[in-house]
Amino acid sequence: MTFKRPTSAGWVTLAIAGLCVAGLADMAFAEDAPAAAAAAAPVPNKGDVAWMLVSSALVLMMSVPGLALFYGGLVRTKNMASVLTQVFAIVAMVGVVWTLYGYSLAFTDGGSMTSWIGGFGKAFLKGVDANSTAATFSNGVVIPELAYFVFQMTFAMITPALIVGAFAERIKFSAVMLFVLLWVTFIYFPIAHWVWYIAAPDDVAAAAKALAAAGDAAAKTAAQAKLDEVTGAVGWLAGAGALDFAGGTVVHINAGIAGLVGAVLIGKRTGYGKELMAPHSLTMTMIGAALLWVGWFGFNAGSNLESNGVTALAFVNTMVATAGAALSWLLCEWAVKGKPSLLGICSGAVAGLVAVTPASGLAGPIGALVLGLIVSPVCLFFVSTVKNALGYDDALDVFGVHCIGGIIGALGTGILVNPALGGVGITDYTNITGNNAGTYDFATQMLAQIKAVVATLVWSGVGSAILYKVVDVVIGLRPTVEQEREGLDITDHGERAYNY
């Protein structure tokens, strides 16, 4: 068979034919591409992953060394090592408990009990590996589940560590450890589930789109049932619409009320009101406060779970609210007491950090600044006038700063989320046409915020009282008067923070 070389016209014909085949192939690929894209699972963005891991490290720094130094500097020399050990040991123990069952109880479906608590489906991190992902607050965006796991672990670590400041210098180390083990199990994990266990945005959007596409009454009924199932499988406060961006209720009100209950039930320090109990090192306290401020950027901006404009908003809000609160406390104290103090400005900074926490990714910067300016005078009033009037010994003002500041922040969030005040507005993932924009209603939102505050106060307050009594019966809460006078550094740990 003889091969005949094509003529010029033949080459043109072959070229046209080739282009036609290629065009048909491209058209077929283009038709298949959307289906393929729709079927492809979202992949974590490397920038989001990096930010979440950095944020986790920053939040850990808030506990050790930040909180440990902040609290340690405020106690007397003979109890410095005791406070440092308590905070460090709590961080370590809660990290173990979180890994074994805490993460599962807080962030999995609890079946018929899922409004109240998760299950044990991910106990011992079953099914959690380098390939599993967790949802964020954006459609189509995920992060590695291990990144989410460790980020939330750092929150579980610092929350019970906050409590010990209320009854510092007068509780046995063994009692602290047993109480915290029980408290995170029965108080923290449930409240974290109530507030932060939400439906994945992609699941809500998919169910809403299916409902919109349903053609007949039967299909619409089935699609609506599916949507209700997805949106209903959440913590009960999340389902009620309560907003807590980074832990106003879950962390600060929760720890603050538990601290107050402990301070009252354990009783006052020996010699309280009769002996000088001044902080032994404001230098250490200032270092701790500064570490808290820096670490809090991970706490608040990290709570957006990704790196975008809202992350920047939370970062800026954390900065301006803290600056405003530190300055506000300093000026108020200066006006009332005649002198501006280092302890005052450090306390104000912490109060501002506490107040902006629930609002950090929801308010605008000016709203956050106002929140910071307001919270300090209120907290100052509670740690001085109210505490003195009622006579309770909240040694390091856990209730006056964290609980009161957290309440102001939680209620303020319901106001400042309003777009008319510079807030980001309400997110509605069932709204598939308006960029998830929801409708803000002041009365509805404030009712949800009040519900979250009251529920946290009651569950943590009553539950903590029961747990303190259990610990007191089992091993006793207080050391002897002689041990307390000698100092917990020696009596509990056999060492001193300082050897001169």
From TrEMBL:
Segments forming a coiled coil: none
Pfam families the record matches: Ammonium_transp
Membrane topology field: Multi-pass membrane protein
Name recorded for this polypeptide: Ammonium transporter
Signal peptide: 1-30
Keyword annotations from UniProtKB, A to Z: Ammonia transport, Membrane, Signal, Transmembrane, Transmembrane helix, Transport
Transmembrane segments annotated in the record for this chain: 50-71, 83-103, 146-168, 175-196, 245-266, 278-299, 311-330, 342-360, 366-386, 398-426, 446-468
Family statement drawn from the similarity comment of this UniProt entry: Belongs to the ammonia transporter channel (TC 1.A.11.2) family.
Organism: Bradyrhizobium aeschynomenes
